[in-house]
Every structure is written in C-alpha cells, then in structure tokens.
Amino acid sequence: MPKLLISDFDIGFENDKEPFLLPEKAFPLLEDVYIWRGRVKKRFGFNLFDHDQLLSRLRLSIGDCKTGVLITVVPGAVPIPSPGRQQFSIGNVILTSNNTTPGLHTLLTTDPLYTGTINNTTGAVNLAFPISLTPIYYYPGLPVMGLRTREDIPVNYEECIAFDPQFSYRRIPGAGWDVFGPLPPAAGSAVWTGTNSDFFWTVNYRATNAYNMNFYVVNGVVADNIRYFTQGGVNWTNLRPQLDVGATRYLETCKILIPFKDRLVALNTIEDESGNDRTYENRARWSQNGDPTIAATSWLDDTIGRGGYIDAPVSEAITSAQFVQNRLIVFFERSSWELVYTGNEILPFIWQQINTELGCESTFSEVNFDKGIVGIGNRGIHIASTNGVERIDVKIPDLHGQINNSNNGAQRVYGIRDFGRELVMWTYPLFGSNQIFPNKVLVFNYRNNTFAEFNDSFTCYGYYQKSSGLTWATLPFNSWLDWNVPWNNGISQAEYPLIITGNQQGWTFLFEETISNDYSLFVTNVTNVTYTITCPDHNLKNNDFILLDNMNDLTFTIDGIVYTNNYVYKITNVTQNTFDLNVPIGSVLTITGVYIGGGEVQKLNKLNFKTKNFALFQDEGKKTNLNDLHLLLTKTSEGEITLNMYQDFNFNEAILPLLGNSSIDTKYDPTDLFMVGQDKIWQEVKRGLLADSFQLEFTLSETQMRNLEIQGSDFELHAILMDVEPTGRLR
Predict the structure, then answer these.
(1) Which of 360, 416, 523, 585 is the S-S candidate for 461 at Cβ 3.0 to 4.6 Å?
(2) Strand, coil or helix: what is 432?
(3) Could you tell me which residues are beta bridge partners of residue 375?
(4) Domain hosting residue 100, numbered range
C-alpha cells in the first residue's frame, strides 16, 4: 500500500487556490499556530511584567499617603477622555471609576479603608486612605500608542518609552511605569492631544553638540508640535522652528522625522503661514547640517546653507519611510519613491519614483531589513528596495483587503521584526468585526516565507531590554516538560531585546518563551443577574474563552461549587464594552455579592488549522482509501488535540476519526517506560475512510478549552504519515 509522508513543513498559510489544488504542505487555515523550522508550532504567548497587572499598566504617580487625603485634579485633558475606565492604586488597593456620565461619582474600592470620588467633568479627585509612605498611581486606561526606543548612555542598552494619547511613560525597574519627564502640568512636562489613532513617531538624533543625543517625538497633531528630550535631561522641550527670516512661517509638526545625511528631515508637514495652518502631505523639509534645535535659524528655507524643502510631483500623501542601507525609501498612498541625496547645498535632495502602483497606507507597517523593507500596502504585502517594489503575498493575495478601513483602520496596522524567532508581525483590525482596535496578528516567517495568523488585540509593538534574565525560579512554564527552549537561548538573557506590546486599555506585555497569555484586561462592573461583565473596549468576540481573577467580593457558584478563579467561561452577547458569561449546557451559574473592582480578564487562545483537501488519486479518476494515519507530535505532560475529518467537499460537517473519538493525546503513557524518555511520539489514528477527497482539521474542542492543563499545553506537529490506496471511481 502507498505511504504518504508529509513533513518539513515549509509552505504555511495559503489561500490563493481552492483547498484541493493546494500543495501537500499548505494550510488554507492556520490560526494561533505557525510554521517554525519545519514543524507546525503552537503560537507563543505574552506575559505581564513580573506577572503583575499594576506593574504592567501605564500609570502616573500623583502623590503619596503621608497625609491620609489627596485632593487634586488628574493630569491631562478635562472633561476626562473615555470616562468610566480610570483607576487608582495605593499599594495593592485598586479604586475604579465605572460611571461614564458627566459629574461627580464614587469610586469602587477593593478595601473599605480606602475611598474616593472622581468628577468626570472637572477631573477633580478626592481620595482618603490610611497614612503610609505608599505612592498613589493614576491609570488613565487609554490605548498604548507608542513603545519607542530611546538611546541611553550605556552601550547596547536602549530605554523603552511608552505613550498613550495624553502621556509619555518610562519604566522604573521593579516599580512599573511612571511619567516620563515632570508630572503635568508642571513646567517641562508634556500632555499630548492626539486621538486613539495618532501613533507616535520618534527618532534619536544629535543635539546642540554632536556627542549628545536628543529623543525627538511627533504624532502629527498641530497642537503638540515637535518635542524632544535631551540625553540626561529632565524636561520636554517644544520645537516649532521658524522657516523664513521674516518669521511669517513656522513648521508646526509632521508625520515622520528621520535623520538623513546629517540633517533632520520632516515628511508630510503641517506649516503655519501667516497664522494659517497648511498641510503639505507630499513635502520633504529638512534642517541645516548639524544642530536642528535652533528654532530661529536651523530650518530657514530662504537662506542658503540652512534648511529647505521639496514637494514630490504626485498628489498623494506621504505615509511612511525607512532606509535600505543608506537609501531612504518614502512610501506614498499609492506609489513609492526614493528621496535621493545630491550633495548640492542649494538642493540637497530630490525625488525619484521607484514604483507607480504599490504604496502604503499604514505608517508603522513598514519593517526594515538590510536588503529591503517589508510592509503592508494598499494593494498587498510588499518588499521595497531602490530597485523597485514587489508583492510577496502570492500565497495570501486577498488578505490586505481584510483590513478594516473604518475607524482609521489602515492607520492602526503596526509591524515589528522579531529577530530571535525570525518573524515579522503585523497587528490589524479585521474587516467585518465592527471593532475599533486591532484584533488580528499576521505573522510572516521570513526565513521560509510562510504566513500564519494569531487572534490577539495589540495596538503597537516595540523593543524592551530587561535588567535581569530568566532564572530556574522564574521560568514561565507549568511543567519542566514544557520547557523545550535551549537554556542559552538569547530570549532568556538580561538586556536581550524582547518584543513588547500594548493594548487598548493601557496594558503592556512581553513576548518571552511562554505558551499562554497572562491577564490583559480590567473589569469595571458586573451585573449579577444577567452575568454581564463590563470591560471597556475589550475587543473580544462571541464564543471566545476567558478566565476571570480578582473579582473581589463576588462569589461565582457553578453547580453548587464555588470558583474564585481558574474556571473557563465562554462569552456571548458581546458588545464593544460588555459580554455575558456562559457555562456548559446543563450547568447553572449564580453570581452573588457586589463587585468592588480590581477584576482581570485573561483570553484563552484556541489553535485551529486545516490541511489541504487531499484528492490523492483524482488524476486516475479514483477514490482514496485512507486505512490509517500517524501523527508525529512533540510529547507534553497533559496535552490533547482534537482531530476532525471532512469527507469529499463537505466542509461544514465533520466526521469523527478514531471510531467515534476525535481526541488525540500529545501526552505520553507513563506506563510505557520507553516512551517516557522520548521527546516526540507517534500517535496512530485508526479510521478507515473511503472518499473522493478528505481534509484534516486540528483544533481544541470546547471541553478541551475548558480544561486549563490541556488548553495551556504546548503543541508541535512534525509529520503526518498516511496509509492510502486508490479504489473505486470518483462520484
């Protein structure tokens, strides 16, 4: 009988053809798994800093507990943006605002000795608490809009600076996030005025002296101008440079700032002309050689040797820019150009078009490589260099059309390169999901040019260097058997550049070698009778699975058993800010008590992937007789997977393998002493099948999702071995 071995997977997600026409190693569906070094591997998870929500969320210290009372006004805009999601912490005590209407409201509190009110209209806060030396933190609960790298004095160390629409933050080792610069509204502070789609572009470039480095920031908002923070400084400085000797024109801000040939170049500018702001979407404007911070002279375009500008001969907006070696590629909405250096002091730069049909609509989708720039454009996923721009998404040609254009969806596409895993990841909002923030991640393995998709909600990415590495005591795994990463892997080292990401509620996370997600959302209210959870902009969808924790003063009883956490709920009746809890059919949920805040939500990912539709002997006009198949799997301590089969071209109704049982163990049999020593195991699937064609689906059932040991286990598929033979005529 013929044997068909499928291994060394190197094609990944592909949907450019019908499933029966795909190659054997292609997958028309590949969710929450990806192709990595020849196997199908479960996606990696993310973790909180020190696995602590308060240390992982963006926050500002606004006082201390020395007097027992704090009466103040929260920093930032008033009325409070997005009211009903603000929180305060005093030690481990959390006070929560859960009322979205204007006026004065009482805060929920996890300790009755700590009380407070907040006025959504004026921003006034009144807190009362026991006297101590504990700092008081304010959590705006706004989306993370930037995780940018700031050059610091130590070699090989860069500081991560975080942004939300109003504030900038720096991380204090062991103490979480705090304001970067003075606390607003003090002199030298910064309060930004952008929206939840105005991301922050930053660049490290020289200061007054060439041996010092400034951290320049723009978000494209006129009121915020260009701001910079000096190396070793303590304050933000506003830069609104003069453009002519007569001081009738000023550079307000721009979309992109980028150093090029000893000048600071501003792309897609907004300029004040005699008191009127004008947007020059196709303009490149530059400073003088050297110091760009002299507002009166560094950017003058009517004085030779100072600044200047040139407009591209195209009526499109500049959207992004990156370097390929020493060449600056600039992306417009529907075309791509190079800003070419001439060496002429009168006109040091000119435009040169490199592609007339492939552009970019997402500023932060472009990811830099030495030989090209990979990004998501208006007509596909591309790689760009000075030799041209070409698409690399022939396997998934329609995916770029799934990006939601509503709610500034194109602006929300954000990419990053993961050097350790050799991946590029883009977060994006899925069309048809009716959600504002991204809820999908496209994963590109640039080592073997394969794609996959993760179901995650991130607003942006960045790089972060931890001050200490992993130890035996801090390994993020439930079992030693699940630790399958070499101990000398760079990710476990101190100061290794980890991927950091943030979400729509102001939480930040690290991608370490975990296989499950930490908690990532806060709860502001619970309606006991309807099992309704209020969780602002949660970005979850119907039938997702979640865990709840720290639901203080509430008792959850299912079928007479009280659960404080570790009970898996499926959610239904999802709206933008609420969802209902669901338990298995036949079970009864009762919620008693009054919610007092501090609750957290953890989303559980459900892997799901399908093989091609195998019509193995259709060229002979014959059916396929599948006698059995074997799966080579990485051994786990508690894992299982569900294997569904689809017969012929019926993709809606699965048939059960294993004579009625669709569950496949990835865990080993402890009574088999030889198997105990293996790191991989073959599992046989005994299922006689006679069909025109068949397709395999690997997923987790609802029962498996509700079992945390199974759901949290690793999964790796190394090979599929089929025992097949031709028989009968095709129907």
Answers:
(1) 416
(2) coil
(3) 382
(4) 60-139
Which of 604, 626, 649 terminates a domain? The answer is 604
Residue 300 lies in a domain: no
Which of 255, 223, 263, 257 lies closest to 240, judged by CA?
223
Query: How many structural domains does the chain have?
Result: 3
CA 202 to chain centre: 18
Residue 416 has pLDDT above 70, yes or no: yes
How far is the C-alpha of 19 from the C-alpha of 728, rounded, in Å?
A: 22
The amino acid present at 381, given as its one-letter code, is: I
Q: Which of 707, 672, 704, 698 is nearest to 27 (CA)?
A: 698
pLDDT in tens, 26-65: 999 999 999 999 999 999 999 999 899 999 999 999 999 9
Predicted pLDDT at 478? 47
What pLDDT digit, counting tens, does each position of 589-605 carry? 999 999 999 999 999 99
Q: How far is CA 187 from CA 70, 593, 679, in A?
A: 22, 46, 60
Q: Does residue 712 sit in the same domain as residue 645?
A: yes
CA atoms of 262 and 274, how far apart (whole Å) = 30
Q: Are 628 and 723 in contact (CB under 8 A)?
A: yes
Rounded to whole angstroms, what are the CA distances from 731 to 621, 648, 649, 702, 726?
Answer: 9, 10, 11, 35, 14
- Cα–Cα distance measured from residue 686 to residue 174, given in angstroms and rounded to the nearest whole number: 53
Position 35 in a domain = yes
Whether the Cβ atoms of residue 460 and residue 427 lie closer than 8 Å to each other: yes
Classified as helix, coil or strand, 511 is strand
Residues 539 and 590 in one domain: yes
Closest CA to 168 of 127, 224, 91: 224
- The CB density around residue 540, as the number of other CB atoms within 10 Å, is 21
pLDDT digits over 611-644, tens only? Answer: 999 998 888 889 988 888 999 999 998 999 999 9
**What mean pLDDT is reported for the chain?**
92
**For residue 311, which of 338, 351, 347, 276 has the smallest C-alpha distance?**
351
Three-point CA angle 309, 361, 77, nearest 5°: 80
> Is the separation of the CB atoms in 179 and 171 below 8 Å?
no
Considering the domain boundaries, does residue 348 fall inside one?
no
Residue 476: cis peptide before it, omega within 30 degrees of 0: no
Residue 654, both tokens:
């699965």
646 and 697 both lie in a single domain: yes
Among 111, 139, 167, the domain-final residue is 139
Q: Indicate which CATH number applies to the domain containing 645.
A: 2.60.120
Same domain, 618 and 723: yes
Does residue 652 sit within a domain?
yes
The Cα 283–Cα 273 span in angstroms is 15
Report the percent of the chain where pLDDT is more than 70.
Answer: 95
**The dihedral sign for the CA sequence 402, 407, 411, 416:** negative
pLDDT for 432: 83
What's the CA angle centered on 596, arms 590 and 602, to 5 degrees?
70
**613 shares a domain with 595:** no
Q: Kindly state the tokens that stand for 478.
A: 């439930």
pLDDT band at 558 (very low <50, low <70, confident <90, very high): very high
- DSSP annotation of 654 reads P
Cβ burial 176-188 (10 Å sphere, 16+ → b, else e): bbbbbbeebeeee
pLDDT(480) > 90 = no
Nearest C-alpha neighbor of 190 from the set 173, 166, 174, 170: 166
How much of the chain, in percent, has pLDDT values that exceed 90? 80
CB neighbour class for 347 (10 Å; exposed up to 12, middle 13-18, buried from 19)? exposed
